[in-house]
Every structure is written in C-alpha cells, then in structure tokens.
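Researcher: Go.
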Amino acid sequence: MLRSMYSGISGMKNFQMKLDVIGNNIANVNTYGYKKSRTTFKDLISQQISGAGAANGARGGTNAQQVGLGSQASSIDVIHTTGATQTTARTLDLALSGDGFFPVATISDLARVGVDRGNQMGNNVITGAIDRAMDLSYTRAGNFYMDDRGYLVTSDGLYLVGETGEKTLPTPAEITKGNTALTAINVFETSYKDMLNATKVLENKANTLLTAYTEYEDALTTGNSVASAYTAMDTAYKDFNDYVSSNGSYNGSGFNTVANSFYNANGGTPTGSVVTLNNSINTFNGAPVSEIVSQVSTIVSSLITPTTPASANEDYANAPDGPNNGTYTPLDSTDVDKIKSLLDKVTNFKVDLDQVAQSVVTYENAAENLLKPKWSDSLSGEAGLIQIPLDAQSFSIGPDGTVTFVNSSGQLNVAGQIRLANFANAGGLEKAGGNLFRESSNSGSVDKNANGIQLDELFAPGTDGVASIVAGALEMSNVDLSEEFTEMIVAQRGFQSNTKIITTSDEILQELVNLKR
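Model: Structure:
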C-alpha cells in the first residue's frame, strides 16, 4: 500500500482537530473571560531511504533521503491575551486590566472556614492554608453575585477568596441582652397599640359628646327638637361614661382597663408593660429608658380617670321625661369646658405616645444591632471570604480590590479585599469548564513555599505586576472572528487536500491492479 494514503489520513485527522478548536472558539465568542485556543502541528516520523554521506577526496558529501509518514498535533495552546472591556455599570461586574486570575472555590473542609450556616454566624476567616480548606479554581470571568447571606460568589456559587474584613461576632452576653430587650419590646408594643387605639376611641366618644352638648344647647336656644337633642346627649354621655369607666357593654375592655394594663397608676407604681420594658433594658447601652417610664407615668395617670361632666341624674333630673317630669334645664357651664379640656389632654397624649414610640424604635434598633456582627473600617489580615451585610445601604469595589459598604447606620466599613492569583506560565493552566482554570504541573504554583497557599501568595490588585480591577465592566472573549474564519478556510482546504492525496493514491493502486488483464 502507498505510504501517502496514511499520510493523508493523519492530515485529515489533524485538520479535523483544528476545526474542532476553531468551532469551540467561535462558540465562545461572547463568553466573558474566555481565552481562545489554537492548534499547531509537527511532522510524525520519517522513513530513511538512505543515510547522509560525508565528503571524501573524490566526491562531495550527500544528504540523507527520507520520506515523511504524515503529521501529528504539536500543541493546543491557550492564548491569554487580554480581551476587550465591556462597560456594564453593574457594581459586581469586575474586569481585570492586566495579568492575573480571580481565585474562586468551593469549601472542602467546613471546620476550617468561618462561614455563616443556618442560624450560626461565622467570622469568614479561613484557618490554615487556603487550599487545604477550599477547592480552588481560577477565572477571568468577573460577573459575580451576592448570595442569600451576602457572600460574593460566581454564577455557579463558588466563593470569591481574598482577605476578609474585620467581622466581630456578638458575644453570648450581647445575644442574651438583645433577645431580652426584643422580647420586652414586643410585649410593650402590643400593649402600646391597645393604648393608642383606646385613646383614639376615647377621643371619638369625647367629640361625639361635645357635639351632643352643643346641639342640645342650640335646641334650647331655638326651641326646636329639644327632646331628641336631649335623648342624643344623654345616650352619648352614658356611652362615654361607660367606656371611660369600663362598665356596661365595655366591661373589661374600656379605657380604664386598657390604661391600667399599660401603666398602673395605683400609688404611682408602674406594674404593667412599661415596667417590663424598663426592667429589661434600663441599662441598655446607657439608654435612659427611665425617660420613657416617666413620660408614660405622667401622661397615662392624667387620663386613667378622665375629667368628665356631671352626672346626668344631677343635671337632667327635671327633664320632662325625667323622674320629676320637669322642664329642660341648660347645661352646667363647666361641662363643655371639661370635655374640651379632656380633648386637649388626649391630643397632647397622642403626641406624647408618638414620642414614646420613636424612643422604643431607637432601642429596638439598638437591640437588633447587638445581635448582628460588627464590622470595622480595616482589613483583618486573614484569608477568607468576602461578605457584604444584607442591610448595607450601598457598597463599592475599588481598583485595588477593596470592597467597602455603608452600613445601616451610615458608617463606612470594609468587607474585604479581592486578591488575585498569578502564574509563571498561564498557558500551562488546564481548562476545567465553567470559565474556570486549574493549576497544572507546568503552570507554576501559587504555593511558592510548599506549605499550602497563604494569603501573601495571593496579590492585591495593582501590585506585584498583577492586574488592577475595573468595577462596572467585564472582560470579553479574546476570540477574533476574522482570524477564526481565516483559519477555518485554511483547515477546510487542508482537509480537502489530504482527501485528494487518498483519492490520487487510490487511482494509482487501481492502475496497478489493472496491469493484469
């Protein structure tokens, strides 16, 4: 058989491989951070027909005669040129301007990583060597996200590794104090709402009674509908009086009952929900909770037994339908003044209640803050995960990789710093899928001292020759379509040429067969 047929077969296989690489490049033309590949070839082996001859006195030297037996793949190289930058204006989109890779990882040893889990909070620090606690990969794709706990992760949920910020967990004493305060506040808020609603009802009934008084006096003046005006006034008074004293249909649910539950004024000693709040958080961060108690003491005690008009039996006994069947008598001049005075007190009391509510909200926020971890404006100096609190007002990422956020109180804190990995031979990294690269034996190692990857072996962006970070942008694929199409044409023609070698060799063989007829 002709050697050319097998040479043609090897050429076809190689150009098919080249087309496979080109196809993958084109498929990833819009993949962020993708690095294109190229295929190179080398000859396979040569069969020697005759060896080289050295020159002698009579003749010059002769070259060896060799017939090549085809080609084979020499390399499939990953080209790590930087792709173009696409602006996205999204804070968590990060492009690298220069060399380096984002280190991302899954957790391989939970005992070494202080990550939040369930109701348990962690300090985000990686204990010991990074690669012994985390299964590391590397990527140029900077489209990161926040997970449900605020950690920066890839689209596949791999954690971004760097230097974590100073995160101080609440102490057991702070947790106990905060929970006790919140429990007391919840009890207080329930009673507070009841008190506020009772005050609104009291105000409405007092306004109804004041209107009935006014209409009765007007009826006496005009002489029109006096009896019906009197009946309406008497009904409004009795309803008002029953509600204030918690009698009649309001037994156990009237104003006095609710007010005494909120604050018991007997002897000026608080025994209700106010003292519950006071006893729970009286020394809460030095907050003057006693001021709340004082406010409630003054304003509730003035309304627990509101100033009311005189008894109906006293003022209206001589009415035609009264026991004496007498004539209608005008109101006592002080009755209307008493109701107006009560309404003024109620109005002021509602303002005071609002102030109390605002104070309680302040203490509630302080209690909730006791249960949260505290962040500083400094880095921890420890390798770890980067977490942005979920209640942060805003956050940003600087060119040096520092992640800062404005907390719920308006203070600027540091969540951490993104670090970058760099390799002596980036082309030696192995592609692992998902825009990830893995360290190989020929890429060079991040671990320079063979003691596990330490924080100082990952570089701050913009230092030690690694890239700086461009926030709000992404690195695009470095695939050049015009180049790929050109290479595709070359591969196609090369493949066709090798098929021609096979068909031509076949024709020659056919001629040999036909020599015998």
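Model: The chain has a mean pLDDT of 84.
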